[in-house]
Amino acid sequence: MNSRKWVGLFLKTLLIGGIVGLITSFFVKASLYTNFLNPFDFMELTGLIIYFTGLGLLFSIISQTGFFVYLFINQFGLSLFRTFWPTVQVLLIAFVVFDLIYFPYNAVGGDVSLFWFILMAAAVLGYGWIIAKIKARETNQRAFIPALFLMVVMTTIEWVPGLRTSGTDYAWLMIITLLACNTYQLLVLHRLTNSDSKGKEKINSKVSSNKA
């Protein structure tokens, strides 16, 4: 994939992060917006919009960094573990899902029911499963486990700073933006690489016809 497409992917993912971060803030930080809507304060409201858009852009950059790390890890895992790499990925997914329940529950000291942490982990796993199925259907079945690995393991690693914040508002802001950005990158990557391979095939066919 050429540099122009990488830049395009970066900018589009950045835009998605900013938009999703802003829209999510309308729901998780609705009280802040309400304070400046009644009475109406244009400057403060504009500042909030810029702030949450900026947060979305930051989360998008974190997502893109994690995505490139994922591409490296996937290639490294294939070369190191070979046919065992899918099994290793499944074990890592199971480990991370367990950690999503165990460590946050311990951190709150039992103040929040275990059920909510199980539900949170199940939601991340369920969403990742759906996106991985879409990826596998659009490419091939071997892409399912790597796609699930990205959506669960890499997204959770990227989410760690949000999990460490006090309260849940910023954690929600971060995870929704990360999932949106990772979903876009995962589902668009094969389209970009396929268009490159088709372009090369056309060039090769033209060269062959000219030689003939």
Describe the structure.
By secondary structure, this protein is mainly alpha-helical. Helix content is 87%, strand content 0%. The protein has 7 helices and no strands. α5 runs antiparallel to α6. The longest helix has 43 residues. The protein starts with a helix and ends with a helix. The C terminus is likely disordered.
Q: Would you spell out the secondary-structure blueprint of this structure?
A:
Layout: H1 3-28, H2 30-37, H3 42-81, H4 85-107, H5 114-138, H6 144-163, H7 169-211
Largest sheet: none
Strand portion:
under 5%
Round the mean pLDDT to the nearest integer and report it.
88
Radius of gyration of CA atoms, rounded to a whole number: 21 Å
Low-confidence stretches: 199-212
Query: Percent of residues in helical segments?
Result: over 70%
Question: End-to-end distance, in Å?
Answer: 29 Å
Helical segment count = 7
The number of distinct β-strands equals 0
Give the SSE string. Answer: HHHHHHH
Structural class: mainly alpha
What is the approximate shape?
flat
Task: Supply database-style keywords.
212 residues, mainly alpha, disordered C terminus, membrane, transmembrane, KinB signaling pathway activation protein, transmembrane helix
Entry summary:
The chain has helices at residues 3-28, 30-37, 42-81, 85-107, 114-138, 144-163, 169-211.
